[in-house]
Amino acid sequence: MIGFADAAPGPVQSLLALYSKFGLLLVGVLWLLAWWRARATGDARAVAVSLLGPVATAAAYAASELVKLVIRQDRPCRGLAEEMTVLPCPEVGDWSFPSNHATIAGAAAAGLVLAWRRLLPWVAAMAVLMAFSRVFVGVHFPHDVLVGLLFGAVLCWLIVRLLTTWAARLVTRFRGHRVVGPLLVAAQAPGTVEQPTVRIRREPRR
Known about the structure:
mainly alpha
């Protein structure tokens, strides 16, 4: 892959290097959109899933860091000259397996799909591209990113599935709170509040 990346045109190298370093910022934007969309529905379960996704993604990242400390696999760029890879090699002690970037991308993709199914093709493409870019720039082996994607996606899916009911109860409990409530449920416009049903008393026939 290092030879392939070295032979790629300069603009391609620059774009993939940029995406490899900053592409995960797009995940934050999508999470905000997913939360805003769920908040507008007023559905406690939907809001819970939109909020659990980022939490589960952070948990997946932390778990991948723990795995790194156990496996302690060096990166493919270690020992190579800096000009041989698209991005500089991380410092010694910053281990390779699994890829944190791929783990976050996989977890975020799974969580976003649970929150907003129509995002599936977009977030899947983003996650795969992130995994590919990490190998392309020379800082990861292919198995680092493949395991990272799977590890992140599975862990996020499990966390969201296990905690959604509990989180939805919390959303329902605090949706009327003066401070927290507006973050959980969008305020209804005047005139859209459903009025109570009034029974009309029918006069007896004579």
